[in-house]
Structures are given as C-alpha cells and as structure tokens.
Write a structure and sequence with these properties.
Radius of gyration: 38 Å
Structural class: mainly beta
Oligomer: single chain
Helix content: under 10%
Number of strands: 41
Distance between the termini: 113 Å
InterPro entries: At4g27190-like_LRR, LRR_dom_sf, Plant_NBS-LRR
Number of helices: 8
Pfam families: LRR_RPS2
Strand order of the largest sheet: 3-5-6-8-11-13-18-19-20-21-22-23-25-28-31
Protein name: Disease resistance protein At4g27190-like leucine-rich repeats domain-containing protein
Keywords: Plant defense
Length: 664
C-alpha cells in the first residue's frame, strides 16, 4: 500500500493506493461499513470511496457483511477496478444494488460475476444519477425512453442465486449482450421473469422508433446476439417463471447450449413449451426436477416426422426426477430413429405415473448407465427391441418400483432369440415387490462381463430368466449393503431359485403355507437337499390353487421328519404326490412317510388319489381324515403314471393292503 497526497479542487488531500493488490476478500465483518473512512458522510456511506484505489485488483469477494449498504460510491475513483476479472458478493442483506452505473465501463475484463443470498437486492446496477430518479415512478409501465445496452465482453460465468427481490439488471429499459458467457445460473429469483424474446413493438417518439415495454421487463431480452456462446443454463425454483420461454424460439438463439437443468417446485412448476427443447440442436445434457408436467417432449407444432430428425440427436445424458404427473415422454408414437440415438446416461426417479420408459422404436446403442427408482407405473421396463440395442450398457439399477413384474417385457410372439449385454458389469434389483423375473420369455441372455449383481427385497422373484443364461464372470451375489451373500449354487438362475426357496421355507419345524404360489418351489430339485424341508415335522398347505400335483417325489423324500400333513382347499390338485419317471428305480428301494402320524385331506374337489406306486409306508400313522373330495377314486393306486386309469376304483387297492402300508 502506498499513501499519495493530491491537491485538487475536490479538496482531497490523500488517498491510499494498493498498487500490487490482486486479491481482496472481505468475509464476516458485520460492523465494517467502509474500507477507508472519509471526510464526509457521503464518503463514509460506501465500502469503497474516493480515498482508496485498486489499480491491479483481479479478484474481489465480499461476503457476510450485513452493515454494508453500498459497495461503491456513485462516482468510482479514477484508476480503480479496471483489471477486475472476478466479482462475488454473498450474503449482504442491506444492499439494494451491487454496482453503480459508472462501473459499467470498468467491467471490460470481468470473467466471473456471482451475486448470491442478498435478500434486499432489486437491481444489479444502480441508477445513472440518483437525484434524477423519481422514487414514485414505476419503471414497469409502458415507456418510450431510449434503450440502454449493456455489453459484457469477457464474462464467462454468471451466477444469480437466492435474490428474492431482484427485478432486473437496471431500472430503465435496457438490453444485455454476453458474447463470452458459457455458464448461466439463475436460482430462486422469484420476482423476475428470466427470459423473453426481443421486444418487437415500436412506437414513434419525435421521429425516432422506440421500443414499447408493456409488461415487466425480464431479466434478459433475448436476441441472436444475447447468448451467442452460452453452453450451460441452470434455472432453479424461480417462482415467477411460469414458462421457461414465451413464443417461438429460433434455434439460433441458444445454438451452442449443451447443458440444461430445470428445477421447479411442485407448488409452482415451469412449463416446457413444445418449441424450446426441440430448438436446442447441440444439447447433450438435460435434467428436469420437481415439475408438474405430463409430457416432456411435446410433438405439437411439428409438421411431420422428418422434423424430429435433429431433435435431441446430440443428447448424451437425461435425468428426470420428481415429476409426479409425467405420463409419457412423447405425446404420440412417432418415428424416432435418430432421437436419443446418442444417449449414454438415463436416470428416472419418482415419476410415479410414467408407464412407458421409452417409445418402442427407440434404440439405445450408446447407453452405458440406466437408473430407475420410485416409478410405480411400470409393469416392465424395456421392450425386446430396446434391450437388444443396449450393447454398451455397463450399469443398470432398478429400485423401489412397486408394480414392475419383469425388466424385459413379454411378447405374444413365441420366438427364441439372444440378447447380448456385452458390456454390463453391474446390475442392481432392489425393493421390487412384484418382480418375478428379469425376463419371462425364452430369450437367451448373455452377460460376458457381469461381475456385480445386487438383489434385495424381491420376494416374488423365483428365478432370473426362463431361457438360457450365461454369466461366466459372476461368482457371487451381493446384498444391498455391499456384502457378498454366502449362498452360490454355481449359476445365477440356480442361486435365485434357492434364495426363493429359503423365503418360502423359514427356519421352523412347523410350517403353514396359505394362498401363495409355491409351484416352482415344490417342483424344484434343490428342495430335495434343503435342510429346512428335512427339519419339518408339521406341514399345512391351504388355498394354493396353482398346483396340479402337490409334491414331486424328489421333493417328498426331503420330509424325513414329517409327522403331520394337512392339505386343504387346493382346487386344482389331482394327485398329492407324483413319482417322476427318472426317480422310480430309486424310490423302489426307499420308502417314504415312515414317521407320518396324522394326515388330513379336505376340500380337494378334483383329487383322484393320494399317490400311485408301492413306494410309501405309513407305519406310524394314527389318524387319517379324508373329507369333501368328491372325485377321489382310490387312496394309493398300483397303477403307474399320473394319468393312468384306475381299473377297479376302491379306496385302498389290493397292492396297498398286501404291503401293509397302514398299521392302525
């Protein structure tokens, strides 16, 4: 710092010159009113007055200074602030504006401007001359005053955040140009409309054509030159912004825009007009959150399908979150061969009314990440055509979707085909109460790089897929907390089937199964070696109507401790036990139900027999009850085969008596 003495008509005798200072931060100084105390009250009212000069200052940060009412005096000291490249003003609640009008010419090198959390700021620039401003005049009425143009040639980043009283950059009619601006963030500025197209109505005033402003001036009047190089636009909870854009939008206005993020609120959402997104030819990132919209990309106003060709063709990342009324992305099915064709990242969260993730015809050949969560309108996620196109997919996560039944949709066409997920490395399926399988059609699924599979809270998932499955790199499942599940049966299908059996059979000696689909568990070979079945002593099955034969022989031989068996109200059971052909020779030398003591068969309307063959002994049976089984022809039949005819229908045939199957 240098002290320099001047003798001028102004009466200033000395100033403080900070010749080398390039960075100045003033933070949490609640009582600081001025940087250098002046000789009069007007001088002392500004933080920077005529007594200080900063000829080399590049970066200026002013934060948490509640007493500061004015940063600069109206006439800024000569030789100061011309080198300013970054200006940030944050949490200064007493400011009504940030910059005096006379500072405009000193911002030619400014690259970053951030004004945040200043609750009283109404304008960025103060009036040109305070004493000429009539405080009772409304600058939002129709005006014919000349237009002022602000040009900021070097600003690359503009951040206006949490300015609840902001009305605009300047109180009079003006336009702005930002030829170098790359990033624009407008967050929670609820008093001002953000954009409007260039004013186009003119009137004559003393022979000159002047713009007519009949509505409140927006923050930005947009022309072709306003944001010629803007790449990132972030609009967040701006309460007065009912529409992101009014009227038609020529694509040259935001031609270079690549990232667009819109966050509204469920109380005051932002409407996305049909012209806006479709007029952004180079958009590669699009995020929409907290909006009450029922469609994202309207097709209205487009002449034909050819006009869709360039729409979103460059989009690589799409994020949709908390859109409770969204029902579809497109209003109607159109040819979208080039739409979303380069999409790499897709995330959909809390869109509870969305029933179709994407139109059937969309190809996602470049998609690497797919995340879906808390979307309760889906029954399935992907069509076969879309799934087959996802050859680059690396990560898939589907969680907390209440109604989803399968990931790849079933079709009526019974065709055998192969779906290659060549790059998929991570798959998560969690909290999907209705999911029965990943794919229920006889497609072969190939996952050559799949190494991480997380499955949790999927109680109806009986197996992974119906068709062939290849996962050569997978050797374990993971729980949702990241730990490996100890159970591994050699392949993904077998492991999931075994996990399903463990859900059906809790660790208990007394088990009751009522009104559930247990067909797969009863028929599965893994149950024959399962400890839960071997430990059972009492089993009750009631209201399981999907069964034709209750037990296969490979499953029954696991019940070595079973003492009580009660079967009721299973309307499709014809035989309680069916001996599989491959097991007959083994069963001949192995008698079943050797410790059974109580047996009840009740309300089985099409039961024809308990079992067939001479493979069963009941040496300890003390109670047998058969009730309301109108088609029962014999209890144990010597006839072979599930559909074999019973020659002489009696309750107990001669073969059963000869081998003394009952000992009462």
């Amino acid at each position: 710092m240098e002290q320099v003495v001047f003798t001028e008509e102004e009466g200033i005798t000395e100033i403080y010159l900070f010749t080398k200072l390039v960075l100045l931060k003033l933070i949490r100084l609640p009582k600081l009113g001025t940087f250098c105390h002046g000789d009069n009250s007007e001088t002392g009212s500004a933080l920077f007055n005529e007594k200080v000069r900063f000829p080399s200052l590049n970066d200026l940060l002013i934060a948490d200074m509640g007493k500061c009412r004015k940063i600069w005096q109206d006439k800024v000291t000569m030789g100061s602030f011309y080198e300013l490249t970054s200006l940030e003003v944050r949490n200064c609640g007493s400011l009504s504006n940030i910059l005096p009008f006379s500072m405009v010419e000193r911002l030619q090198k400014l690259e970053t401007l951030q004004i945040c959390e200043c609750e009283s700021v109404e304008r960025i620039f103060g009036p040109e001359d305070d004493h000429r401003v009539n405080s009772n005049e409304s600058h939002e009425e129709t005006s014919t005053e000349s237009t002022i143009k602000f040009v900021f040639p070097k600003i690359r980043e503009l951040n206006l955040r949490m300015l609840p009283k902001l009305k605009g950059f300047y109180s009079k009619v003006h336009t702005t140009e930002w030829p170098s601006l790359k990033k624009l963030w407008v967050i929670e500025c609820s008093k001002v409309e953000t954009f409007s197209r260039e004013f186009i109505n003119f009137g004559d005033t003393q022979g000159e054509r002047q713009p007519l402003i009949s509505v409140q001036q927006p923050l930005f009047w947009i022309t072709e030159e306003t944001f010629s190089n803007l790449e990132e636009l972030f609009l967040f909870r701006n309460g007065n912004m009912k529409k992101i854009w009014h009227g038609a939008l020529p694509n040259k206005y935001f031609f270079n825009l690549r990232r667009l993020k819109l966050i509204g609120s469920l109380e005051a959402s932002v409407t996305i007009p049909n012209c806006f997104v479709q007029s952004l030819p180079n958009l590669d990132y699009f995020s929409v959150e907290k909006n009450v919209v029922n469609e994202l990309f309207p097709c209205e106003g487009l002449m034909d399908e050819d006009e869709h060709a360039g729409t979103l063709a460059h989009l690589k990342e799409l994020r949709l979150s908390e859109l409770p009324e969204l029902t579809h992305l497109w209003k109607k099915e159109v040819s979208l061969a080039q739409v979303l064709c380069n999409l790499e990242f897709l995330q959909v969260v809390e869109c509870r009314k969305l029933k179709n993730l994407l139109p059937i015809s969309v190809s996602l050949k470049h998609l690497t990440t797919l995340k879906v969560s808390k979307c309760h309108g889906f029954r399935n996620l992907l069509t076969f055509t879309t799934a087959k196109s996802m050859v680059q997919l690396k990560t898939m996560s589907v969680t907390d979707c209440k109604m989803i039944e399968e990931i790849i949709a079933s079709t009526t066409d019974e065709v055998t085909d192969v779906v290659f997920f060549n790059e998929l490395e991570s798959l998560e399926l969690d909290s999907l109460p209705c999911l029965s399988r990943f794919c229920s059609v006889n497609y072969a699924l190939v996952f050559p790089k799949l190494e991480k599979v997380i499955i949790g809270q999927c109680p109806k998932m009986e197996f992974f897929t119906v068709g062939e499955l290849s996962t050569p790199m997978l050797s374990a499942l993971q729980s949702t907390n990241g730990e490996e599940i100890e159970l591994w049966e050699g392949d993904l299908n077998a492991t999931i089937q075994q996990l399903f059996i463990e859900k059906v059979f809790p660790i208990s000696e007394d088990l009751e199964l009522s009104s559930i689909n247990i067909q797969r568990a009863w028929n599965h070979k893994l149950l024959a070696t399962h400890s839960y079945a071997r430990n059972l002593t009492c089993l009750t099955i009631e209201g399981c109507h999907n069964l034709n034969c209750l037990f296969s022989s490979s499953m029954v031989k696991s019940f070595v401790q079973l003492k009580k068996l009660n079967i009721e109200n299973c309307e499709n059971v014809e035989n309680v036990i069916f001996v599989e052909g491959s097991a007959k020779e083994e069963m001949t030398n192995r008698k079943l139900f050797r410790v059974l003591e109580f047996l009840v068969l009740k309300d089985l309307p099409i039961l024809t027999r308990f079992c067939h063959g001479n493979y069963f002994e009941f040496p300890l049976l003390t109670s047998l009850s058969i009730e309301t089984c109108p088609t029962l022809k014999t209890f144990i039949s010597g006839a072979q085969g599930i559909n074999s005819k019973i020659a002489s229908p009696t309750l107990f045939d001669k073969k059963a008596i000869d081998v003394e199957v009952f000992q009462f």
